[in-house]
Amino acid sequence: MATAKKAPAKTAAPAKRAPSAAFMKPMTPSPALAAVIGNKPMPRTEVTKKVWEYIKAHNLQDAANKRNINADAKLKEIFKKPQVTMFEMTKLISAHLS
């Protein structure tokens, strides 16, 4: 007795949620952070994007472990140490936003 094969049920793609209002609120960077990303207020998401642009433009990702960021003089003022992980980075940057 042969059984009929059913096509897999199609599931709808999950609806994209709007970003949290807290993430979209413009934040003012400290003078040390402003030296890297500029001094105009911007949302946290944009701050992180700008810092990554700076890191990639100055080739600051560790070659052996891409999760580590090697700080240059400007980033050392923000991070307070020569190397941080990408996960530490966001925490340290948030201390420079008001």
Automatic annotation (TrEMBL):
Classification via Pfam families: SWIB
Comp. bias intervals (Low complexity): 1-22
DM2 domain ranges (all copies): 22-98
Residue numbers spanned by region Disordered: 1-24
Listed SUPFAM superfamilies: SWIB/MDM2 domain
PANTHER family: SWI/SNF-RELATED MATRIX-ASSOCIATED ACTIN-DEPENDENT REGULATOR OF CHROMATIN SUBFAMILY D
Name assigned to this protein: SWIB/MDM2 domain-containing protein
Organism of provenance: Ottowia flava
